Amino acid sequence: MRKVLFLFGQLNDDDVEWILAAGAKRFLPAGTTLIEQGVPVDAVFILLEGRLGVWLESRRGPEREIARLNAGEIVGEMSFVDARPPSATVRALEDATVFALSKSVLTAKLAGDQGFAARFYRAMAIYLSTTVRERHRALGYGAARAEDEGEEEGADELDTNVLDGVYLAGERFDRMLKRVMMV
Question: What is the pTM assigned to this prediction?
Answer without folding.
Answer: 0.83
